[in-house]
């Protein structure tokens, strides 16, 4: 039985803050602070260059990849850390396309995170070979999978609405049509049970600064199904993906399996923080996280709909059909969110009109949900959002 | 007048260690430790998601890029931080090739860092358009530049020997032949004066964990000459290179100038450490760093040649023709370096036979050089390297 009061004690949450934005940036795990301090002083400071061997820096991408793999149904040796999610999308998509050389269509949907679409557009421009990015609405994906599709590239949980794709069903349909799949797990990893192996996913990528609490700009991960891993050509063929990086050959020879998806020198500060952050998952049952997440989301929806009629639900009502976040829509969403933040309820805003709230059982409970609704109710009932300063948009929304 | 005793006091150097490997990983700046601790507690911990605006995280890649730019002769707004050096090589090369669409040759040399060559090979594989990587010997580069060359891609300072290319002359020759240039400054930035604008360089890239002391896996940088910056197509077109990332458009529109070379969410822990590390350069005159570096290198060469005849110089003898490192060659180089490290003299080994020593005036002085030679002399004269344990190769050499 997962003890959520224990997991809550592992995070630093400022006094007076109800943090409903862990779907964007998870809060600081106390262990990460300690781990990074130790890295700075004892490892970088004390070991200097020897840290690569003696502190195990060089093997962190694989070792931590295995830890992430456990949370997403990936076997040992199939996940590696590094770079950013956008770079990992590019790698996965470039390799995936070469597995289906006779087809030109990349199928995605308008609920995919824009950077995934942009990376596809950039890759298509480089390939110069007639590839096409076909973007349909999320509910049209299933019927759009046909024998022209080379790669089905989707984010499992929609960043705006929380809508959840059926990874297993869509992967099966893609395979039946002769396509391969690239799944973005940005809003899935740490939010709900993911079973990459069970779903037969070909490639998957994700970030670790959301539900995995790795810190701002924490390293991304990539998964390649074992039956593909030794066959794919890495488009971003960096030295740490080489079979023998320290022989300094002039010609690239890909490393075995997932190693070839490594590129450059790994970001050790970020990896150390993430490594410690992952400790929070020891003894945590993801099915219990999922059950509690749905309970918190359902409670939030019910209370907001009862008390704030001006807000329209922007997420699926059925808990089984969404991730761990809830969006409500309002044309003054931006200002409403600023008013909430000023009162200590931190969520975020996604253009054009969504206010987004993430519910993360590791550190958020029912009391937080009810208190957040009290404050939201007060703001809506008394139009506390209707002040000019809350309409001034910041660089990052 | 640069005060090198002041700069030395800014770094943590363990008792009993003579650190001659700052050309691989710079030592810990005390300010970086403080800065990262503050980032963890006050910013990530205290500000949570608000750190992106309130702590200026989102603008760090440009702000720190300008700080690096000052050290490499780049105007404000022409350098941006992010990713790893290998990724930045790919970006620069992909954009450079599209500026010369009618030519297929990428000219490089065998002294380039292998990852740069590997990234070129990976890009060529994706382009599938008949491009060719032509690798010549370093001394043949000048004569190999002809009207078939699309891009001249070189590392200014050879990672093995320290040999220094003449960036201005080779760039001029490349331009005269109708080619564009990509310069890797991994062993130049912070080691010697670099004048990208004066040399007319088109693209430049580099890492920051060597002479810039940004920490293990610190973020890389990319420079694009102002007259190219608004014209190049970013192959790695991530959301933070978009003109307006937070409008979440489905189509990519490149940001203005150097911004389009941003890709994904920036690695804030690494950027914070680097930002603090760059403080060490305030009040430092790079021409004095260069003069002192040559003095230290010359002293090392003279003393080693006098006392250790079994070691053969693997670097240019003329200080003006090398970077800030010295290599000596010996077939038992690996074991010799292990023996040195066991005695507190930290350099490194590069296959097949080079022992490498970096000389970094910010924290290394004449006394360190002489003491290091004493220990090397003892090891060579008494064959202290000749024990089995020093021959066992570690993962990272």
UniProtKB/TrEMBL annotation, chains A, B:
> Pathway involvement?
Cofactor biosynthesis; NAD(+) biosynthesis; quinolinate from L-kynurenine: step 2/3; Amino-acid degradation; L-kynurenine degradation; L-alanine and anthranilate from L-kynurenine: step 1/1
Among Pfam families, the record links this protein to:
KYNU_C
Q: Which reaction does it catalyse?
A: 3-hydroxy-L-kynurenine + H2O = 3-hydroxyanthranilate + L-alanine + H(+); L-kynurenine + H2O = anthranilate + L-alanine + H(+)
Q: Give cofactor(s), names only.
A: pyridoxal 5'-phosphate
Extract the PANTHER family matched here. KYNURENINASE
Report the family membership: Belongs to the kynureninase family.
Under which name does UniProt file this protein?
Kynureninase
Gene source species: Rhizobium puerariae
Q: What is the lineage of its organism?
A: Bacteria, Pseudomonadati, Pseudomonadota, Alphaproteobacteria, Hyphomicrobiales
